[in-house]
Amino acid sequence: MLSEDTWPGTWQSRPLGALAEAGPAPGQAGIPHISAGQGTTGRVPGDSGQQESPLGGDSTWHWDAGVPGGPTLPGREAGQREEETRQRPGAGWRMSPFHSPSSSSSRSSSSSSSSSSCRSRGPGRAAVRSMGSCWLRLAALLALGARASLEYEGSGYSLLEDDEDVYARSRYKETPWCSPIKVKHGYANCRTPQGEYYKNVLGTRCDIRCQKGYELHGPHQLICQSSKRWSGKVLCKQKRCPTLSMPTNGGFKCLDGAYFGSRCEYYCSPGYQLKGDRIVTCMDSKAWSGRPAACVDTEPPRIQCPSVKEKSAEPNKVTARVFWDTPEGRDTADGILTDVILKGLPPGSHFPEGDHKIQYTVYDRAENKGTCKFLVKVRVRRCVKLNAPDNGYIKCSGDGNNYGATCEFSCIGGYELQGSPARVCQYNLGWSGVEPTCAPMNINVNVRTAAALLDQFYEKRRLLIISTPTAANFFYRMQLGMLQPAQCGLDLRHVTVVELVGVFPTLIGRIGVKLLPPSLALQLRLLLRIPHYSFNIVVMDKHGMDKERYPFPATPAELFALIDKFPLRKDEMKLQAEIGHSCP
């Protein structure tokens, strides 16, 4: 049987030795017919319309149909296939470069002798047949020489394969075809078609992988093509993480930019602290490790308060005016303060006695706060506290016993003050003057004039003068009857009652239990212009002023209401309320 070539585009004939065994084709006696299977046909020279195949030399000649698409369809007539083969472009005799050193000389001599014997035939039908037989023998000799050459060890010849097919397969089977693959920062896992030793033979497939930290640019698989080139280009590029964002009020430093394995360290400006991971690394996932970093202002602003302020109160005061410079805050970050809050009295204020805490609070733009505190100490120099005398009152300025304070003393009705009416607390913490006392009032009725008599009551007592022509006067008796139960109210209001009874020369004056001389009583009536022959009441204040007159008896309530409106009476009422002096 005849075999077919499996190489695309070319169908090859069997060796010429097979043609000798096959004999002439049917219908063509005496002319050898060389069959190439179902794909191509060839005729020996001498057959009309065919080229002569030069069978001499060291090569094997075959008919190349020049059809790149494969063999012709089976079942066609041999003549039709032969005719189509001739008409195809590129068809003709081709020489396969197989060569066997041991058989080349024998083939040359045999071919030469055979060709010379074949050419000696004469013309005619017998000559034609004889020439065909000659050519047939020549083909048989050449076939035997070709078989001997192809069976040489290492030639790759197989009885089941065409000589050209065997040559091509043995040539490319173990021969490196494409350039060796070298993948920088990667590796290639290659598989050959039939497990060849070299990993770059024709048809080799290589899977491309990159090292950790690198990514592949190009196809994942390369194939060694017949053009001796791989099917693509690959590159392992170092992976790159996204560019880090610069933190506000800070920055970062990287060892190798944003490439895989690079370490970046964040830092913050003075006054700011890092929040997040200080060091991040570009990972194989093309992401940075750790949390995003930020620079935040967590440090509170600084503020310095003054030292303790101590001051003594001014004379006759229990406060001291204290000054200091307002402290200034400073922010360690951006130097900007949004607010300064003072807790306590501002500088220049009057501070009372004692310790006073002053606090300043400042805030920065990040709402961090800083505080500072200091004390203002005010001291008051004090004397021993004075008390009111028995049957008397005390009224002091300031705090009563502070440095510069003045204390004034007075007595209740019917008593007069003996000693210093006022005392001052001095810097040496001692009181000036002499301690006062309240003794029963001693009125001198032996004075020569009424003015001298009234001077004894100046700023001490108020006077209620009752004048009547006779002791039997009805208004006089009624008035005395109303005043007797109101004696406590009269003493509480510092009122002394002076009685003038009669008409000169029988005129008598009386103050309590003391009697006035008639002449002194007359002078008093004349000085105050009091009528001699009618009932009359005169009310005088402590300054000797005539405040009110009544021509008829006045009730104690009316008199007290009038006296309580006097200027000095208001202070007296306050003192009496403080010591609890009142009437039932």
Strand content: 25-35%
Q: How many domains make up the coordinates?
A: 6
Secondary structure: helix percent: 10-25%
Uncertain segments of ≥5 residues (pLDDT<50)? Answer: 1-123, 144-169
Overall geometry comes to rod-shaped
Compute the CA-based radius of gyration. Answer: 75 Å
**Largest sheet composition:** 6 strands, mixed
Strand order, main sheet: write it out: 31-30-29-28-32-33
* Count of helix runs: 11
User: Which structural class should the secondary elements be placed in?
Assistant: alpha+beta
Q: Short summary of the structure?
A:
The protein is of the alpha+beta class. The chain folds into 6 domains: 16-170, no CATH class; 186-238, Complement Module, domain 1; 250-296, Complement Module, domain 1, CATH 2.10.70.10; 302-375, Immunoglobulin-like (Sandwich); 392-439, Complement Module, domain 1, CATH 2.10.70.10; 445-579, 3-Layer(aba) Sandwich (Glutaredoxin). It has 11 helices and 33 strands.
Topology:
Elements: H1 16-22, E1 33-36, E2 40-43, E3 60-64, H2 78-87, E4 92-96, H3 101-119, H4 125-150, H5 163-173, E5 186-191, E6 205-210, E7 214-217, E8 221-223, E9 235-238, E10 250-254, E11 263-268, E12 273-275, E13 279-281, E14 294-296, E15 302-303, E16 309-312, E17 319-322, E18 329-330, E19 337-343, E20 349-352, E21 354-364, E22 369-379, E23 392-396, E24 406-411, E25 415-418, E26 422-424, E27 437-440, H6 450-455, E28 462-468, H7 474-483, H8 487-492, E29 495-501, E30 508-511, E31 514-516, H9 518-528, E32 536-540, E33 546-550, H10 556-563, H11 567-579
Parallel strand pairs: 16-22, 28-29
Antiparallel strand pairs: 1-2, 3-4, 5-6, 6-8, 7-9, 10-11, 11-13, 12-14, 15-18, 17-20, 19-21, 21-22, 23-24, 24-26, 25-27, 28-32, 29-30, 30-31, 32-33
